Amino acid sequence: MKKNVRLKVKPSYVKGLKTGYPLITEDAVQNISNVKEEGTIIELFDEKNVFLGKGYYGKQNKGRGWVLTQNSQELIDQEFFEKKLKKAINHRQELFNNYETTAFRVFNGEGDGIGGLTIDHYNGYYVLTWYSEGIYSFKDEVIASLKELVKVKGIYEKKRFAVKGKYIDDNDFVEGEQAPSPLIVRENGIHFAVYLNDGAMVGVFLDQRDVRKTIRDQYAKGKTVLNTFSYTGAFSVAAALGGAAKTTSVDLANRSRSKTQEQFSVNGLNYEDHDIIVEDVFNYFKYAVRKELSFDLVILDPPSFARSKKHTFSAGKDYPDLLAQAIQITERNGVIVASSNCSTFGMKKFKEMIASAFKQTGSTYNILEEFKLPQDFKTHKEFKEGNYLKVVFIEKLS
Ligand code: SAH
Known about the structure:
- It holds the Pfam family PUA_3.
- It is an enzyme of class 2 (transferase).
- Residues 5-90 form the PUA domain.
- This protein is 28% helix and 31% strand.
- The model has no long low-confidence stretch (mean pLDDT 96).
- It contains eleven helices and 23 strands.
- By secondary structure, the protein is an alpha/beta fold.
- Strand 16 (246-251), helix 8 (255-265) and strand 17 form a beta-alpha-beta unit.
- The chain folds into three domains: 4-69, PUA domain (Archaeosine Trna-guanine Transglycosylase, Chain: A, domain 4, Roll), CATH 2.30.130.10; 78-181, Transcription Regulator spoIIAA, CATH 3.30.750.80; 205-396, Rossmann fold, CATH 3.40.50.150.
- Bound molecules: S-adenosyl-L-homocysteine.
- S-adenosyl-L-homocysteine is lined by residues 205, 208, 229-232, 234-235, 250-253, 256, 280-282, 301, 303, 306, 308, 311.
């Protein structure tokens, strides 16, 4: 049985919680440091003892838990989890029935009503990601609910929280049948090799599905493509399948070469027709400028924060400079796909960064289209940070 604790919300945070802001921050609640046990059920009240919401305690970055319900009578039990999961699964029915796409997100944290938990589906296997020890304490309820609602071949989990200051990196496999390694999934007909038992990242970022399809179907044919921060080369493969003349993938990580070769191979493409370069993107830009290389399509999808030997990159600060370098090696009337998953700024600021980069290089541009998170990455309207993805297709005019 879970412990219940009543806590008072500081006056300036009452309004936010009333309108449905789901994150419980350390500053918002009096005496939150008295709560010691992860997974404790917290009931929140204002100064006049009016009920505001009920949730769980769990340390997740600056958060100290998530509100799960604004109904004081609702219990956080097996039935609660089953209800939330059921709704989430119904919301993805189209994807469950889509033969061409077998990898997608089934449950997206606060967007589906339970902050701190995501569930991804890969061809009948499920990967649960727990963002705090608090939500992890509900593991039995979540797994029982999932098995009640869908046919599960096997379950894996990723623990994205530290216990006593240490991240636990034990076996990801939980139960059922083990997935083949690699497991081949489909996305709009593109194949991806994924590894469910190999650390936090499985080999493909599911939130870029619509962007990959758009590149393949509308932007790649006959083009030379530069894919920077390429990871396993998912964008390169999409472009190659769309008839790109050639793709060049650049990533710092050694593993990116074999991983990218593999993604080409599982799509019946010859990776030797493409360049896969293991290098710091910032060095590569210098090299490309020196050699006067230029590309018809340049894809920029850096991490929010990265440190290499010579550079520290922070998207919030350095994106305009990165983009300015990309502009220099993009053909006139070429297209730059600028993407950022940084949660500290939104689309408006991202577009200001784009404007400033083009100004800096003395070039002009035209925005062709924009993408945010796909439908399966459901967001919570009061929780803007959760709506992190911004992708802009930009034509360089001069
Ligand atoms: N665009 C990819 C995902 C990028 S993940 C996709 O759609 O699949 C971020 C990648 O950036 C990682 O693979 C990491 O190795 C790489 N990276 C980080 N800093 C880098 C740098 N300075 N130069 C090149 N690659 C870098």
